[in-house]
Amino acid sequence: MISEFGLISLGLVLVLTSLSFAKLVLSFSGKNLSIVNEIKSSWLAFFLTLLSFLCLTYSFIISDFSLEVIYKNSNSQLPLIYKITGVWGNHEGSILLWLLVMTFFGFLFSLNNIKNKEFKELALTIQNSLIFLVSLFVVITSNPFSRNFPPRIEGADLNPLLQDPGLAIHPPFLYLGYVGFSIVYSITLAVISDKKNSDFIMVLKPWIFISWTFLTIGIGLGSWWAYYELGWGGFWFWDPVENASLLPWLTASTLLHTILLARKNQLFYKWTVFLSIFTFILSLLGTFLVRSGVLVSVHAFANDPSRGLFILILLFIISLFGVIKFLSIIDIKNSKQINLLSREGVISINNIFMLSLTLTILIGTIYPIFSNVIFDKKLSVGAPFFNSILSPIMIPFIVGMIVGPFIKWGRDDLKFLISRLKNLIFLLFFASMFLWYINFGGPILSIVFFVLGGCLILSSFYEFFLLLGRTTKKIFSISNRVLAQILAHMGIGILVIGITGSSILKEEKIQFQKVDEIIRIKNYDVRFLGVKNVEGTNYISKMGLFEISKNGQIIKLMQPEKRFYNSGKQVTTEAAINSSLLGDLYIALGDVNEKDMENKQWTTRIWYNPYTIWIWISILFLAAAGIISFTNSIRLKK
Amino acid sequence: MKKKNKRIFNLVFFLSLLITGTTIIFYNLRDNIVFFYSPTEIHSSEFNLDNLIRLGGMVKEESVNKSQIEFKGKNVEEVSFVVTDFENEVKVKFIGILPDLFKEGQGVVVEGRLDKNYVFTAEEVLAKHDENYMPPEIKNIESIKGRVNDI
Q1: What distances in angstroms separate CA A368 from CA A121, B25, B35, B82, B128, one per listed residue?
Q2: What share of chain A has pLDDT > 90, as a percent?
């Protein structure tokens, strides 16, 4: 009963937004369909989708196994929290969540007080048309309310890998980021179409900042989950599914820079329009790659290729619309010349770097599809490709981030710049020497990136203190925009150090470890004490006991597990991680072998991952920068 | 410099940058792509034994064997199994921890190198998150289609 209610609400959303879609299509041929009130439409669309989503959630909570989705992805023994997060732990539910987020952003935008009514109306028409396309996709290919026959009494269970708090909150954050760019797309297209656009940049800014912040946190959570839950000792594998989330993040990060200049300069205005459209296209492409399963991915779940085709059609329609609109504002003659040695100049160079980075990763990610379709060759592009291309691009890029913030707007002079930055150059020189000295003998790439990352953090601090010295009042008088920039750049510096440490300097040991045998890694002694059986709520676990000592003193007991879930046949590895600011000790247990248990030995895999914790800290810095920019842009608008 | 010349200079500069960039990308791509083969293709095609390749198919029933060997001075477990597409087979050796969802009778993709005796040394056994997930490459092997129920 409840589920029928959910399906009807969903159908109503489809019918309601189809009017907006018709209005949009008719407007191309000059006709005007003014019967639709877009503001009320977007409210209704949001509340109906929310209702539908709540109906699904309720059905999950009461374990209504007559619904196919719930039968496949839930179980009566499941803890309540995972019954709820199970709603988006499957294709159908997660697409419904995607739709919910999309209507939510439309709703929020409709609450905005914008003087230019026509512009607001048009933006909402476009957003509602997007909602129409996505809800059509949900109803036709991914109806979460479809029944099974005969009804089942017990469910198959939620995939055990998803029974984890990190992954439970990862999809909502990621979607708030991905789908947040749908409203950015709608606003941008409305601006191009509306001739007398008043101050679109101010309207657009908060949406970009908040979507970027959510996307950053979403990617961070996913990566963190992969690190502790999969037991592979790494946090990023250059898998297509991971790249799919990185691509819109890169273009959105570029957008954060161009938007600052879009009001003053035509060139940056065009960049902003282009990047706004492109970011949403990349978000859709990401959804296509994840949901269609065209590429072999370590993170893929069972999927249905017919859905891929539908998303591809959506992608095509939305891209085509965006590209046509964008081409209408292209006008090469009319752009102002930009001096390369100025803040505008550095930001342009930054744009070019970011875009090359995006295109490189894009080519590497989708090349296997082309090769399969065109040359009929099945292949994959490995991590070495991405690493070998990115390292050389990152070096000048980070140098640019160090120098960029100190260059003046408009026009700067090289001699004057150097004399101004004398102190900083000295400071960075000695810091580099010091970083080089303490990492002496290590791999050359790690030294280069430690020095660059360190210098970026230091120069951000320097910028901060420079501002502090210049203002007579206290910290509070530093502009929020500059503060966000400092935090974000500092975050990237920290991220570079974290990534360098945990990828290049990683140590790994894999062996048969007998009881009482001690394995030495870095300056830790890892002694294996044995394995015991532990019972969880819906699983049985084999828990390894490891005694960790450092310089002869016992510091910790670590307990990695192998969990065997009752309902399915699936096994998960729960790694044990001992984090410190200098590095993580990471232990994973190998698979169970009867013979080994008799011999009291076990395959163990032990890693030492230097500075990994700094990756997660850098995400906090970036998120803080995003939130500051967001609140600042809202405050300025008022 | 005249304005027109400057524009031509800029254009040439950016075009050359673009061409260099693309060349570097595709040159790197060529060196780092990993081709995928089914067991039948392994036996019927010729390739450089130094190259990293991927092999995919089904793990043959009752073919998984574990043994202890000496490797780099350490006592480690070596797993061997047979990958089949129901027409041809390839023996695979692997040192390391198998992914949680590795099972006999299920699809598997391994990455590594082949030796001249057609024994495959895997550097990595690709994991998956879902027991019902079948990588698209295995799904499309002709001789496997229709022989396995869930794909």
Answers
A1: 42, 14, 10, 26, 19
A2: 45
CB A456 within 8 A of CB A583: no
Within 10 A of A258 (CB to CB), how many other CB atoms are there? 25
> Which stretch of DSSP H or E encloses residue A538?
none
- Contact A388/B97, CB-based, under 8 Å? no
Tokens (6 digits) for A364: 């590497």
C-alpha span between A586 and A592 (Å, rounded): 19
Distance CA A438, CA A440 (A): 6
- For A581-593, the pLDDT digits (tens) are 999 999 998 877 6
Q: What secondary structure letter does DSSP report for B69?
A: E
Q: Cα–Cα distance between A388 and A235 in angstroms, integer? A: 18
What do you get for the CA distance between the two ends of chain A, in Å? 46
Rounded distance between C-alpha atoms, residue A621 and residue A453, angstroms? 14
Does the pTM of the predicted model rise above 0.90?
yes
Q: How many Å apart are CA A349 and CA A33, to the nearest integer?
A: 44
Which among A586, A575, A576 has a CA at the least distance from the CA of A611? Answer: A586
Cβ-Cβ contacts under 8 Å, A294 against chain B: 136
User: How many angstroms separate the CA atoms of A188 and A195, rounded?
Assistant: 12
Reported ipTM = 0.85
Per residue in A460-504, pLDDT (tens digit) is 999 988 888 776 665 565 688 889 999 999 999 999 999 999 988
- Across A599-622, average pLDDT: 91
- What distance in Å separates the CA atoms of residue A537 and residue A559, rounded to the nearest whole number? 18
Alpha-helical segments (H) within A550-612:
594-598
B137 — contact with chain A (CB < 8 Å)? Answer: yes
The alpha-carbon radius of gyration of chain B (Å, integer) is 22
* 8 Å CB contact of B24 and A381: no
Helix (H, G, I), strand (E, B) or coil at A292: helix
